[in-house]
Amino acid sequence: MTYDPLSANPLAGNPLKTRADVEKAAHDVFNPLLPFFSEGRARVRLSAAAAHFDRIAADVEGFARPLWGLAPLAAGGGRFDHWALYREGLANGMDPEHPEYWGEVSSTDQRMVEMAAIGFTLKMVPHLTWEPLPERAKTNIAAYLKHIRRFDYADNNWKFFRILVDMGLEEVGVDFDRSLTERYLEELDGFYLGDGWYRDGNVRRIDHYIPFAMHFYGLIYARIAKGEDARAARYGERAAQFALDIRHWYDEDGGALAFGRSLTYRFACAGIWGALAFADLEALPWGEIKGQYLRHLRWWARHPIADRDGVLSVGYAYPNLLMSENYNSAGSPYWAMKAFLPLALPEGHPFWQAEETPAVTSKKPVPLRHPGMVMMHTPGNVVALSSGQQNYQMRFGAEKYAKFVYSSRYGFSVENDERAYRSACFDGMIGFSDDGRHYRVRESNEAALIAGDSLYGRWKPWHDVTVETWLVPANPWHVRVHRIETPRSLHATEGGFAIARADFDADTCKDSAGSALARSATDLSVVLDLTEGTKRAGRAHRAQPNTNLIAAKTIVPQLAGEIPPGTTVLITAAMALPAGGEADAALNSPPQPPDLARLEALFAQEAIEVSAMKVAERF
């Protein structure tokens, strides 16, 4: 029998159209975990693979993260047959005398993250978790949570975790030092940038943590916190502004922009839409919010995101440890259960009663100043031209934050060998080598600007090499202009979008001077050299397996050539579309190269600073 990897997906086959469908999905995602609960029910171990934190903390992840979906399920009247299991696990995990004790905290610790789900659960369903427990268990749980909240949390979205623990303690009548709560609420406000956008902590990092963490927790707080009307109203106002922008991170088929860290949390990206519903905030028409929410869940139902036993894998559209973070354990993907927050709402809520409406897309580019992006909607895809972000803290930070372009349909690729220049992907990126073996790419910017619907970045692959890059939308194409100043000869390779590659190379590829094209049964990807004069060599590059987030095997059209000492200008056009007439029409109508002098004049007159350094100085 041939194994069908999609058959293990717990969402596969679910139409995901109604509240009942979503309730079934919550059960189907959770149930494969049941065989992996420990004897004392306090730990869930799913794999021998490790994260940077200790093994017990990883087991606590597996135990706690499903509660993000199970608590709303029960709060909304849904049946869940395993609350006794969770009560036993909570009692044993926080009992210092039990063999499955979770261990003490003495500084910033992964357990702080997971206790947020427990605080949220105590707040939402105390009658199922807290009230049936014996007094000794209650005493232990209260002591554990009060102890853990005293330590400093990471300087980012983690600060909300103390808030959520405190909401749970308050609900069950446990006294605690509320000054610590207020301090973190004030510090979280310090991350606010404006227009609904936050940064995630102590660097200018603006990724999916803004919708599925900062706003998600803020909207939970707005709905269920006690006595905080002014702050709750502020969270709602910010989220309403944010919704107008973040809808452009989702394509018409439900795919989310693949960008940044922690993408293994998968349909947690539906969290922002579910949180708007939970907070009873009609930031967009209910039909649009519901459409964004359900289309996103359906997108994930079409991808092999689980192992053979139905357990969600580490990876994105398929199991893939290569793209993971050092803090991803086997239990990490279950933050996806955040998507089930609107199950707390009754069937009669306007969110569930609304008729789905299509995604709001725009033929014109949509500039988003705070993340330093220009969004383009193309068929079945949303493309982000990107500049202005930085991240040195995450594995593959350059690939996750510093490429020129990101996509919902084609994802992005991470490199698997920094000593193999000729086999690198370089999708959405230009790579330079001075020895034919090692290479450098953009990691951050010295300066980043947005003017109208175009972007600019100045960056240094080496201390003595400067690259200025302009990104210009030409939907469905985009154009990149690079001005390179180098004192020595370099070799450069620049890539377009990576598309899925069939076995036995059963795809059409065309290489020539100045262009490269890859055509599969489903997609077309092309890159053109618009530079005046000698053209770079085209290559349809068969990338290394498991480098791309969406497809395990890909082809990346590339342009490659020598860069002499001095100043060189390169102009590149790239485009990818679903195969068909629209793709062929676009292929026959490539964009014209932009006038560099006009671009420079535009940025001299209208540019807005979006660089990491300038923003960081504001705080």
Description of the structure:
The structure is a single chain. The chain is of the alpha+beta class and 619 residues long. The protein folds into 2 domains: 349 residues, Glycosyltransferase, CATH 1.50.10.10; 238 residues, Distorted Sandwich (Beta-galactosidase, Chain A, domain 5), CATH 2.70.98. It is 31% helix and 19% strand. The protein has 18 helices and 20 strands. The strands form 4 sheets. It has a 9-stranded antiparallel sheet. β8 and β9 form a beta hairpin. α8 runs antiparallel to α9 and α10 packs antiparallel against α11. The chain is globular, with a radius of gyration of 25 Å. The N and C termini lie far apart (59 Å). The C terminus is likely disordered.
Features:
619 residues, alpha+beta, Beta-galactosidase, Chain A, domain 5, 2 domains, nine-stranded antiparallel beta sheet, five-stranded antiparallel beta sheet, 20 strands, 31% helix, globular
Class based on secondary structure composition and strand pairing: alpha+beta
Task: List how many beta strands DSSP finds.
Answer: 20
Question: Would you state the CATH class of the largest domain?
Answer: Mainly Alpha
Q: How does the major sheet shape up? A: 9 strands, antiparallel
The span between the termini is: 59 Å
Average pLDDT taken over every residue: 95
